[in-house]
Amino acid sequence: MTAIVLLVEDNALNRDMLSRRLIKMGYRVLLAADGEDGVAQTRTHMPDLVLMDINMPVMDGWQAVRILKDDPKTRDIPVIALTAHAMPSYKDKADEVGFNEFATKPIDFPALVQTIEAILHAQSINAAPITRQEQ
Fold first, then answer.
1. For all residues of the chain together, what is the average pLDDT?
2. pLDDT in tens, 24-78
């Protein structure tokens, strides 16, 4: 089984770059451009993991993760925060609202993949292996 990752990112260039790299690693990737669409796609597709930008139009990542974590159907889906804000207060707030992990931009892709794999393996979901070229 290939893990399904929903990438919720409003910046088209970031969304394209990150999704291509995740696909290259063997993940099935779904895309959303704002938090509202991210919540809807999570409820519809039940991905194995969500990568959620925090600052987005329509609905930000803070509100989206609160909705997902308050819903019994989606509360156990792990969500990793993606943000350009590396301040400790952002990390603390991410923990408080229910994000499982926190990654700052620019994304350290090998570290992100290790985090994704650790989460998926902890949930007994078959994660794609890291390839030599991505390490």
1. 88
2. 999 999 999 999 999 999 999 999 999 999 988 899 999 999 999 999 999 999 9
Number of H helices, E strands in the chain: 5, 5
Q: How far is CA 96 from CA 41, 43, 58, in A?
A: 23, 22, 22
Q: Is the dihedral of CA 71, 9, 115, 118 positive or negative?
A: positive
Q: Distance (Å, rounded) from C-alpha 10 to C-alpha 77? A: 21
**Cα dihedral 19→24→25→26 (10° resolution):** 90
pTM reported for the whole predicted model = 0.88
Query: Which CATH class name applies to 4-134?
Result: alpha beta
Helix (H) or strand (E) holding 53: strand 49-53
Strand 101-104 vs strand 4-8: parallel, antiparallel, or unpaired? Answer: unpaired
Distance CA 54, CA 9 (A): 8
CB-based contacts of 116, cutoff 8 Å, min separation 6: 3, 5, 27, 49, 80, 127
